[in-house]
Specification:
The protein has helices spanning 4-21, 25-39, 44-48, 52-65, 68-73, 81-100, 107-117, 126-134, 141-149, 153-156, 178-181. The protein starts with a helix and ends with a helix. The chain has 182 residues and is mainly alpha-helical. It is globular and about 55 Å long.
Length: 182
Amino acid sequence: MTTGNTSAPGMLTLAEIKEFASFTAATQRYIRRSLDVAFDRKDAVELWSRDVVEAAGIQAQYRFYERLPEIRALIPDSSSIEDAEPFMAALVIVSAFDLGQGRIDGFGAYRFLYERLVGAEARPWFPAAFCAAASMPHLQPEKRKLLLQSISEAVATAPGWSKRAPRFFPEWVEKVDATVAR
């Protein structure tokens, strides 16, 4: 017999998979690539780059993501501005890099990625970091507008956030030739 508590993790994982499936193919690809870079799962340059420009972008991403362990260690225990300064400064810079790559098209995809990169404990800080990064002048004005319009009032004014860690970490899946698989 299955109790509600044992099936809940499976339902939450399924909800995460459905959310990931709702993102564009380019966003899904970028999230998988980013997780490979962040957690050194695979050689991201070899796996993900299609040309020299993309290879250079992935190399830059490796450099920016070197800050992730520091960012994780700096997650504030309180909502104090003084406690937030070193954390937010680093988080906004890395976030600005990711938004500047043009593959994260809204707050939902950003939150999905950053819950995995930084951790669930940082969720209260994601709306502010996203808005700061999405407002930076390295983005074209129309892109800034689209990004900032993607964050809902409910998210921006949420009274609290879950500390539940994400369960689904999407990875590269090799394509299977359907004619060979039969």
